[in-house]
């Protein structure tokens, strides 16, 4: 059995993995889907101090305090940057890294220039610059189109602290990080937007570590069976020495 740690993207929370987590747990796996501070069920803790390092440290601390090893660490969207940083700080605890529609390795505004337009619509509340205020338009931008899914997701989305999106990712153990097997699952919707690193995708394809799911960006909500199936396949895959 496998231990999965599932990290959500901007404006979301651990709730967005509910369908995938239940399916993995039903197969006997151990699943953690924490909510990053300032978001979801922890939105009441939002503060001006929250940045990318805050979220990276939270995930690294989870791996340490729960004494987790050989973890399949999954990051969706913004969460891809978080899990890359957490794996860098928790070398020896992560067995495989999975980037779920996540352009890893860059600050989010580098990967998603559209966020600069979102910043224009943002607001400063209690000293915190927040963006991605929930709306039906935003939900559809995330690729959620089923009316029941929209009704479920919309009230659970929360504004996101801007500071986490513009802070560059700093790595301290890059050689060891590169040695961790890395896998990429992307949505068909995101491939045409130019947000993914073409060289990384090409390398992942050549290594058999790339999959495309015909869905929108929030594919863990819209395609939980496909995502669950690929995560179990990745966990079972033999690791080839590169």
TrEMBL record:
Gene3D superfamilies, A to Z: alpha/beta hydrolase
Alphabetical keyword list: Hydrolase
Keyword Kinase: no
Domain spans labelled AB hydrolase-1: 5-227
Molecular function GO labels: hydrolase activity
Keyword flag Amino-acid biosynthesis: no
Domain of life: Bacteria
Protein name as catalogued: Alpha/beta fold hydrolase
Organism: Streptomyces axinellae
């Amino acid at each position: 059995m496998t231990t999965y740690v599932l990290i959500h993207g901007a404006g979301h929370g651990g709730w967005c993995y509910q369908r995938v987590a239940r399916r993995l747990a039903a197969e006997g796996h151990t699943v953690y889907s924490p909510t990053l501070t300032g978001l979801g069920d922890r939105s009441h803790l939002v503060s001006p101090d929250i940045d990318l390092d805050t979220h990276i440290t939270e995930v690294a601390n989870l791996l340490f305090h729960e004494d987790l090893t050989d973890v399949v660490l999954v990051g969706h969207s913004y969460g891809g940057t978080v899990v890359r940083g957490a794996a860098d700080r928790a070398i020896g605890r992560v067995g495989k890294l999975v980037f779920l529609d996540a352009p890893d390795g860059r600050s989010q505004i580098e990967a998603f220039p559209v966020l600069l337009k979102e910043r224009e619509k943002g607001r400063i509340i209690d000293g915190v610059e927040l963006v991605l205020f929930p709306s039906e338009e935003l939900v559809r931008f995330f690729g959620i189109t089923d009316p029941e899914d929209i009704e479920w997701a919309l009230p659970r989305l929360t504004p996101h602290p801007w500071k986490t999106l513009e802070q560059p990712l700093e790595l301290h153990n890059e050689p060891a990080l590169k040695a961790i097997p890395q896998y990429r699952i992307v949505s068909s919707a995101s491939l045409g937007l130019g947000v993914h690193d073409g060289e990384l995708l090409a390398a992942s394809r050549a290594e058999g570590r790339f999959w495309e799911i015909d869905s929108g960006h929030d594919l863990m909500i819209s395609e939980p069976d496909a995502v669950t199936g690929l995560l179990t396949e990745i966990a079972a895959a033999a690791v080839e020495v590169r």
